[in-house]
Amino acid sequence: MDIFDFFNSINSILWHDYVLYSVLGVGVLFTLWSGFSQYRSITHGIQVVRGKYDDKNDPGAINHFQALSTALSGTVGLGNIAGVAVAVALGGPGAIFWMWIVGLCGMALKLTEVTQAMLYRDTSDPENPKGGAMWVTSRGFEKFGLKPLGVVIGFVFCITVIISTFTGGNMFQSWSVGQITKVYFPNFPEVGAGIILAVVAGLVIIGGIKRIGAVTGRLVPFMCVLYLLGAAVVLVLNVGAIPSALRLIVVSALPDWLGGQSADPVGAFLGGTWGYALYWGMKRALFSNEAGQGSSPIAHSAAKTDEPVREGVVAGLEPFIDTIVVCTITALVMIVSGAWNRESAADFGDLPAMVAVVDEAGQPVADQWVPSISAVPPKNAEAIRTSKVWRSGDGVFFLVHAEEDKRTGRDVHQVLGTINEDENSELWIDWTPFESANMPKPYDSGLYMNLPGPGLTGHAFDRAVPGMGMLIVTIAAWLFALSTIISWAYYGEQAVSFMLGKWAVLPYKLVYCLACVVATMGFIRTDRELDALTSLGTGVMLWANIPIMLIFGPQAMRAYRDYMGRLKRGELGGHAYPKATDVMEGKDIE
């Protein structure tokens, strides 16, 4: 069993169907309990972010806009590029419908968890407030005379934060940048990307939350606008396909008895049931927007305000921006471009036979098979137009029929391979053995490009405008990854500080930056390995944070109703909007 098999065995528990239903149920609960707070986030939340209620005399370190930007920089990241690609590639278009549902329910989850954190944050140092679920439990249980229990639960939560910090917040981001850079700049070493990210992130996180807020306040709006403008070009070029794409998203997400239809295997897509679409949609949405995970309350707790609910309302905007807007745009680009069910890039001509793997003694290895052909067929004209010729290091796969995959409901599987170059500059395919009790049968004679994570999104842009993937997705991936790595460094720092004290912060930061390099050293190869890593971090945090939300949720809801009552009665004041540039730079609270 390798490390990813071990992670998957844990994830099978963390991400059991009942866990997904429970998280969705909690989102529905707080949506109804708050009287559909999503509306308040979109209306009042925008007023708050624009600085109408900012007061330099309130406790805190950064304004509402900077707090939202810091939290968004941890969510609007490669989960929107690579995560959506994984969801559509594995779960099909229907996964996006369930991402929408999670995004809407996530708005209520974010409001609740951030309000709780603001109610219990530590403002003993007004310039450096601390908050998060660990402070909620340690201070909240103290009111019940159970402070030791609260501290223990807080420690457990901090451990999950650290796991998620290094997996989804750091290594996923670094690996994805290495991958997309490798696709377009094959001579640039992946580990070089990790080193650059480590150095730049280190220079920012050493400065603390004020420097982080200053950087993300400028970086997040720029990177979002850049990415969305590029996506708009693709959608305008394929505007006629958008209605059918939206219909496909809905139809593929629903069971037969509701008029839905499971997505069949076409091209590179292996097929999937509506339940599989739900699984991937919820899983990747929760990773992307972090609703219920308990991470962003740590950033929001640094906001300069004396109204806990006010920051909670702002936090509700995160899933809307992240999932309803950015993730949807990425998904539509992938669907209308045809990247998700792309055709083969080359053709073997005759169907390759599947043969048993042999050991060094020439004896067949039980239940392991590879295609009989290792020669690389030339790419077709369309594949060359969008991705140029084959190069050493390119990932490929061949499709076979084998036992039914319970996850997709189909019998189609990928046999993975990597293109290598011999001493005569001839290309050949090094196949990864496919495990099956019976000999697999070829599905077709095509050889497909293996484009895990951000590579698939880049390919979608290139199919519309060759070269756009290199320009837009590469730049966006670097910016998105850097911003996420910076924000998650702060989350992990607060967890380490809570558990061990300030002395442990500097060693933590050094190890954290080193993880950027480790992630780009080649031990992650496929979408499933990538998912195993990120799912572990998200899963453990959900298990720790959701019970905390349910225990202290009533307090958050009482505070929410009180705040909204005062808002309706005109008791909260407010002032003229400051200049947008002053808000972005934090000058409105200086």
Report what the structure shows.
This protein is α+β, with helices and mostly antiparallel strands. 62% of the residues lie in helices and 9% in strands. The chain contains 21 helices and nine strands. The strands form two sheets. Strands 1, 4, 5, 6, 8 and 9 form a six-stranded antiparallel sheet that branches. Strands 2-3-7 form a three-stranded antiparallel sheet, with no helix packed on it.
Show the helix and strand layout.
Layout (H helix, E strand, L loop, with lengths): L2 H12 L2 H17 L4 H12 L14 H12 L2 H14 L2 H27 L12 H11 L3 H38 L5 H16 L2 H30 L4 H12 L20 H16 L6 H5 L7 H8 L1 H21 L8 E2 L6 E5 L5 E8 L9 H7 L7 E11 L4 E12 L5 E5 L2 E2 L5 E2 L3 E4 L4 H11 L3 H33 L4 H15 L7 H42 L11 H6 L5
Antiparallel strand pairs: 1-9, 2-3, 3-7, 4-5, 4-8, 4-9, 5-6
Helix pairs in contact: 1-20, 2-6, 2-20, 3-14, 4-10, 4-15, 4-18, 5-12, 5-15, 5-17, 6-7, 6-11, 6-12, 6-14, 6-15, 6-20, 7-8, 8-9, 8-18, 8-19, 8-20, 9-18, 9-19, 10-15, 10-18, 15-17, 17-18, 18-19
Given helix and strand content, the structural type is alpha+beta
Main sheet specs: 6 strands, antiparallel
- Named CATH topology of the largest domain: Amino acid/polyamine transporter I
The CA-CA distance between the termini, in Å, is: 55 Å
At the first level of CATH, what is the class of the largest domain?
Mainly Alpha
Low-confidence stretches: none
The average pLDDT score comes to 86
